[in-house]
Write a structure and sequence with these properties.
Distance between the termini: 35 Å
Strand content: 25-35%
Radius of gyration: 16 Å
Largest sheet: 11 strands, mixed
Helix content: 10-25%
Structural class: alpha+beta
CATH class: Alpha Beta
Order of helices and strands: EEEHHEEEEHEHEEEH
CATH superfamily: Gcn5-related N-acetyltransferase (GNAT)
Number of strands: 11
CATH topology: Aminopeptidase
Shape: globular
Number of helices: 5
Length: 199
């Protein structure tokens, strides 16, 4: 499969294939996706994924309301995932979103699934009125969606990270003006039973 073989249908948020290809649909994540999502993340990112700085901001929290998505294959299986999380930019700073992790089934790499997940996540974040999205990732990939390190020089992640990989996208012009400090977790906390099942 190749990204050129897909057309994004804005209403259905589906990736429609050309003749002979399997359809992939980007939809809201549900509770029944948890086990498949976690298995996919383990396979795509390896066992060290839980030690990343970004994970410190996600631990014990729920994704931002309405901003957790999966890509489903034709059989309904989870072929990709992306979630966005509420953060504040420094102590008492502005609200923003942290994107991640973004992962695609390794057997479906280069099929345009990651790009479709990114487009849906950005579009929904903007529609819901969020002002900025940050992430830790590779500029060559995320740059095509408008992310860059040009506005993150005064910001830091909690724990070790590569500074040049802290990228941001303003959804509202000037949203990152004057921001500084270390990103802090915000938003909804997981309930006790959710913490147990997530461990």
């Amino acid at each position: 499969m190749d990204i050129a073989n897909f057309i994004v249908d804005g209403a259905a948020r589906a990736i429609s294939p050309l003749e002979g290809e399997s359809a992939i649909a980007v939809v809201a994540e549900t509770a029944t996706d948890i086990a498949a999502r976690e298995a996919l993340l383990d396979e795509a990112m390896g066992p060290k994924r839980r030690k990343k700085s970004s994970e410190k901001l996600r631990r014990g929290r729920r994704p931002s309301e309405g901003l957790a998505f999966v890509a489903r294959d034709a059989s309904g299986g989870v072929a990709g995932t992306v979630r966005l999380w509420d953060v504040t930019l420094g102590e008492g700073g502005k609200a923003a979103l942290l994107l991640g992790p973004l992962a695609v089934d390794p057997s479906l790499k280069n099929a345009g699934i990651g790009s479709a997940l990114m487009r849906r996540a950005i579009a929904e974040a903007a529609r819901l009125g969020h002002a900025a999205i940050l992430l830790v990732g590779d500029a060559p990939f995320y740059g095509r969606f408008g992310f860059s390190a040009s506005r993150t020089g005064s910001l830091a992640m909690p724990g070790p990270y590569e500074r040049h990989r802290l990228l941001a996208l303003e959804l509202v012009d000037g949203a990152l003006d004057g921001v500084h400090g270390t990103l802090k977790a915000a938003g909804r906390k997981l309930k006790a039973q959710e913490l147990t099942s997530a461990a």
